[in-house]
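Design request, tokens follow.
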């Protein structure tokens, strides 16, 4: 929400329990946000925004794990609306005494919109094709067997069998229970064997 970089189409689940180090910094922010909300005049709208965030987040917070992903960017779209409501209302109340209020807030809004538009343009460029998308996912995540498997499929479809085998084997090494990667690796080995037999047939026909 605040720093949308290193986003990926798929984030592998860490499978090591809760990552407390990444979540501890959110508690001071959460307390400060609630304190500013209770001190502003529009408490009702602030509280509405805060509970909107919490309510919309509960179904996707991971209490019941669905799929292999650790989290997903799309899960934050609707919950964030509540934070935007709460934050905007709190900022409007806190800035009442500012003399150049309209100028400052207008300039800040233009800067934020411009920065996020630039970020969105960069992020959208990774979606121009599947190879770029999953290569980027590997660059910004760790132990991403799903991205490795999907790249393997792409190379398999292109006939780049050695590269496909390398990617698919990497996916299996990361997650041995990744059934689709095993299937795709078998297809890659099968295709490579067929090409070898065809090549030997052609060479023998020349002799």
């Amino acid at each position: 929400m605040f720093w949308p970089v290193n986003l990926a189409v798929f984030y592998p689940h860490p499978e090591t329990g809760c990552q407390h180090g990444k979540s501890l910094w959110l508690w001071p922010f959460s307390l400060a946000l609630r304190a500013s909300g209770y001190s502003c005049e529009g408490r009702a709208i602030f509280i509405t925004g805060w509970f909107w965030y919490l309510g919309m987040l509960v179904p996707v917070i991971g209490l019941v794990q669905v799929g292999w992903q650790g989290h997903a960017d799309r899960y934050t779209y609707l919950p964030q609306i509540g934070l935007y409501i709460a934050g905007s209302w709190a900022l409007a109340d806190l800035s009442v005494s500012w003399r150049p209020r309209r100028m400052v807030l207008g300039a800040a809004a233009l800067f934020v919109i411009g920065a996020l538009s630039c970020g969105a343009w960069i992020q959208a460029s990774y979606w121009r094709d599947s190879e770029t998308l999953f290569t980027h996912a590997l660059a910004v995540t760790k132990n991403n067997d799903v991205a490795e498997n999907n790249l393997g499929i792409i190379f398999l479809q292109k006939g780049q069998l050695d590269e496909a085998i390398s990617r698919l084997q990497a996916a299996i090494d990361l997650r041995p229970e990744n059934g689709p990667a095993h299937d795709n690796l078998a297809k890659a080995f099968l295709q490579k064997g067929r090409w070898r037999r065809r090549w030997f047939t052609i060479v023998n026909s020349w002799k």
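Comment from the thread starter after seeing the answer: thanks! The two ends are 67 Å apart (CA to CA).
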